[in-house]
Write a structure and sequence with these properties.
Blueprint (H helix, E strand, L loop, with lengths): L7 H9 L4 E4 L6 H4 L14 E6 L2 H14 L8 E5 L2 E3 L6 E5 H10 L6 E6 L7 H16 L5 E6 L4 H7 L4 E4 L7 E5 L5 H11 L3 E5 L3 H10 L6 E6 L5 H5 L9 E6 L12 E6 L2 E8 L4 E8 L2 H9 L7 E5 L23 H9 L16 H14 L10 H7 L5 H9 L3 H13 L8 H10 L4 H17 L12 H8 L4 E6 L2 E4 L4 E3 L11 E7 L6 E8 L2 H8 L4 E9 L4 E10 L2 E7 L3 H4 L1 H15 L9 H17 L6 H8 L17 H11 L4 H7 L3 E3 L5 E3 L8 E5 L11 E2 L4 E2 L1 E5 L5 E5 L2 H19 L25
Parallel strand pairs: 1-7, 1-8, 2-5, 2-6, 3-5, 6-7, 9-16, 10-12, 10-13, 11-12, 13-16, 19-21, 27-30
Antiparallel strand pairs: 3-4, 14-15, 17-18, 17-20, 18-19, 20-21, 22-23, 23-24, 25-26, 28-29, 30-31
Helix pairs in contact: 4-5, 11-12, 11-13, 14-15, 14-18, 15-17, 22-24, 23-24
Length: about 800
């Protein structure tokens, strides 16, 4: 007997009392395969069925097969299932196992869910977006329409207290596990292939290896050397059903090494597994509302999922789990997964909520409310697609889109295309993914049509046929023929992109995108991007198709806006005026408009100012020694007396009146920068006489010479020959006597012999030593004993004093 079977009585009693049930049961307890079938004949169901949600298609199908076999039945009788492209149910079905998105669709078509008496959410801890939506809808229906609709939540790793606080007076039932002991070994730095070799030598059962994605599985598969008696089997979502089933079949005495994504983390036990090798990595989708794009991110596995994987080794007998990370790094890992509702593209969820009548973000009883920014971004896209009106309510078109179980982008493509068959294949390829080898979706479509017998092609064509039936006959289609790129533009109007050279594009949304330069589509004038990453800078395009400019105008001409622009041309170093046609942030057409230079002088100046900022005020071609000196004098007074600072923005602002009609960088030579700075001085409330008094351009010495003052350093400085300073008793000061000038006293050969800002002190204490040294070097020059009383002279030779 499974441990969960001991709790069947408690579960039945709680449900009979019309209570919600939370069943916390560890892996291997039998909760998934024992509890639901034990409830199918409960009298309170009154002939209604039980619907159990499983997060993954593989788990849903295999759960149904196992439970039916335990009852001696075939699937589709009492026990049935429905997943994408596969449905095995009948009028006799009492327990139907489905994936989460299907239940949300049922609520939209039948809000009362009249044929269902109990909804079970299995493996609830995974918290997918579809799960949270279905859970919120179920709660809302139970509270408002169907108080007799029971809800049960089951999970191995579950915060039962948090969930219980959200439900209405639930019964929390805990079952013990039946997991055998699992030894944990840490192999930090070891590759998966090497770890498999080690496990084959140290264990004797089958091995389940967890890797983040299909690419890593294939690389590991290629790296494992063949070994007698061992079968290496891949397992991932896009793998054909018959190849997935090989994992569960008997190997006839041969050992199995299963290379799996997270698809094998939960639910049905894989026979024979006694060893788990965990890469410690998981691949999740992250959505950025500011860019409107999702990207797959490989990140460290959280501890709750690591424990879930570890438990797979102890289902049938004692086992071992090899973890490919250091034990010391375990504390740095997150404790549990972030609910997908906080990281996902909310467009499908917002549309489904609106179709249910919940138009506001907090209208439904979310376990974790969606972020406002992501909700608003999704609402904006749905309005652009025509699914919501300005107030956020469902339009007739949106009602049709919500009934089609696919992303609203693709539903819009099906409804807008004149060729539903082609649009359906395109939608199926995008939905099924698995296209990393090829960026041109047209080539993938051609391969599907040319090889209809391949598993991938069969899956695409079957899904496409279902989509085509959903689309029906297109209504109000404006075009009789559209290219594949034009059809995709109905789904991705914000991702139409124009080539800007070197394999880079600019999208309608404003984001940059890029293809490898060797890609055949890298030279296309326009493309429509279906799948991109969310890296900084230009997003990498993984799937796209070309579109013609004439198609863009035909489909979106009413959204094209015209505007005149004056902007700085960096390459030509001039202001360029033009008239543009834009779709969003994407430039469609630009025509020079020189006449705008005369009528839009303010815009011309703003563009010129932009160019000055870009090239740098200090690089202006009209600076002279005098104007640079004047700017430094003003900056000096700004530092010491609090005058306005003639910084770059102030200089640019005061140039405007002197640069009228100028459009080229080189023509700025005509602007007198001294006049610009004097205008600044006047606007600051000062005059030239005040400037000359507080920060003069030159300093007069006793000989009558006027020495240039340098203001470009931290302190003002002057260079002057020592003999011209005899009789100068004190160091001159600037800024109203606050700042002494740093004086560099020069020898007869104009070399520095003393630097001081205390001239009186130098005469008293330092001059005698300088005189002694200088008389030896320059014996014919004038070196009086008393500098205070000596007469200053420009002629430094002895006997020729002034």
């Amino acid at each position: 007997m499974f441990p969960a079977e001991e709790k069947i009585g408690e579960v039945k009693a709680a449900l009979a009392a019309n209570k919600d049930v939370i069943l916390a049961a560890p892996p291997g307890s039998g909760k998934t395969t024992c509890i639901p079938p034990a409830l199918v004949d409960e009298p309170w169901l009154e002939g209604r069925k039980i619907v159990m949600l499983e997060p993954r298609r593989l788990a849903a199908r295999n759960c149904a097969i196992y439970i039916a076999s335990q009852r001696g039945e075939t699937v589709g009788e009492t026990i049935g299932y429905q997943v994408r492209l596969e449905r095995k149910v009948s009028s006799r079905t009492r327990l139907e196992i489905v994936t989460e998105g299907l239940l949300a669709q049922r609520f939209l078509s039948d809000p009362e869910l009249a044929d269902t008496g109990l909804v079970i959410f299995d493996e609830f801890h995974e918290r997918s977006l579809a799960c949270d939506l279905a859970f919120a809808l179920a709660l809302d229906v139970r509270r408002a329409l169907r108080p007799d609709l029971r809800i049960m939540v089951m999970s191995a790793t579950l915060d039962a207290a948090e969930l219980a606080a959200h439900l209405d007076a639930p019964e929390v039932i805990r079952a013990e596990g039946r997991m055998f002991p699992v030894e944990t070994k840490y192999l930090g730095g070891v590759s998966m292939a090497a770890a498999i070799g080690k496990a084959l030598g140290e264990t004797d059962g089958d091995i389940l290896c967890f890797l983040p994605g299909e690419g890593e599985i294939m690389r590991t598969l290629a790296a494992i050397p063949p070994k007698a008696g061992v079968d290496v089997l891949p397992l991932y979502g896009a793998l054909p059903k018959n190849e997935q089933d090989r994992v569960f079949e008997s190997a006839g005495g041969r050992r199995k090494v299963i290379l799996s994504t997270s698809i094998a983390e939960t639910s049905v036990t894989i026979p024979g597994i006694t060893c788990v090798i965990d890469s410690g990595l998981m691949r999740v989708s992250r959505f950025t509302p500011s860019t409107g794009m999702s990207g797959l991110v490989t990140m460290p596995l959280t501890l709750d999922r690591a424990e879930q994987r570890r438990g797979r080794a102890g289902r049938v007998r004692p086992g071992v789990c090899y973890r490919l990370w250091e034990e010391s790094g375990e504390a740095a890992r997150g404790k549990k997964m972030t609910p997908e509702i906080l990281d996902a593209d909310l467009c499908p969820l917002v549309l489904s909520s609106a179709a249910f009548g919940a138009c506001e973000r907090l209208s439904l009883p979310w376990l974790t409310p969606p972020a406002a920014s992501a909700w608003d971004q999704a609402s904006g896209l749905l309005k652009e697609l025509g699914a919501l009106d300005a107030s956020g309510r469902l339009t007739p078109k949106g009602e049709t889109m919500a009934a089609i179980p696919m992303h609203p982008r693709l539903a819009n493509m099906l409804l807008g295309s004149p060729d539903p068959a082609t649009a359906s294949i395109l939608a199926a390829i995008i939905e099924e993914k698995g296209f990393a080898r090829e960026t041109d979706i047209r080539r993938i479509m051609d391969e599907v049509k040319e090889t209809p017998g391949r598993p991938y092609s069969r899956r695409i064509l079957e899904l496409a046929r279902r989509f085509a039936r959903m689309a029906g006959n297109p209504a109000n289609v404006r075009q009789k023929y559209l290219s594949e790129g034009a059809m995709l533009a109905f789904a991705y109007p914000d991702r139409i992109a124009k080539n800007r050279g070197n394999g880079t594009f600019r999208m309608v949304s404003g984001r940059g995108a890029m293809l490898e330069r060797e890609d055949a589509l890298a030279k296309s004038p326009y493309i429509v991007c279906c799948n991109l990453d969310d890296r900084l800078g230009d997003a990498r395009v993984f799937l796209c198709a070309p579109i013609g400019e004439d198609e863009i105008f035909a489909l979106f001409g009413e959204n094209v806006r015209e505007e005149g622009v004056c902007e700085w041309d960096k390459r030509e170093e001039r202001v360029r005026c033009a008239k543009r046609k834009l779709l969003g942030a994407m430039l469609l057409e630009e025509v020079p408009s020189p006449e705008d230079a005369k009528t839009r002088q303010e815009d011309v100046w703003n563009a010129l100012a932009q160019g000055i900022r870009a090239k740098g005020v200090e690089n202006l071609p009209n600076w002279t020694k005098s104007s640079l000196q004047l700017r430094e004098r003003l900056r000096f007074l700004s530092r010491h007396l609090g005058w306005n600072d003639p910084d770059d923005e102030a200089v640019i602002a005061h140039m405007e009146g002197f640069a009228q009609g100028i459009m080229r960088w080189k023509d700025l030579e005509k602007v007198d920068m001294c006049a610009v700075l004097e205008c600044f001085l006047s606007d600051a409330g000062h005059d030239r006489r005040e400037l000359e008094r507080l920060a003069p351009e030159r300093m007069e010495v006793p000989t009558g010479s006027h020495m240039l003052i340098h203001y470009d350093g931290a302190e003002p400085t002057v260079e002057v020959r020592l003999q011209e300073c005899f009789g100068l008793m004190e160091t001159p000061k600037l800024a109203g006597g606050k700042v002494p000038i740093v004086m560099t006293l020069l020898s007869p050969a104009h070399r520095p012999i003393q630097i001081t800002k205390d001239l009186a002190g130098f005469w008293r204490e330092g001059y005698a030593l300088v005189r002694k040294d200088m008389r030896g070097r320059y014996p014919k020059h004038y070196w009086p004993e008393e500098p205070f009383t000596a007469v200053a002279t420009r002629k430094t030779a002895a006997g020729t004093r002034k």
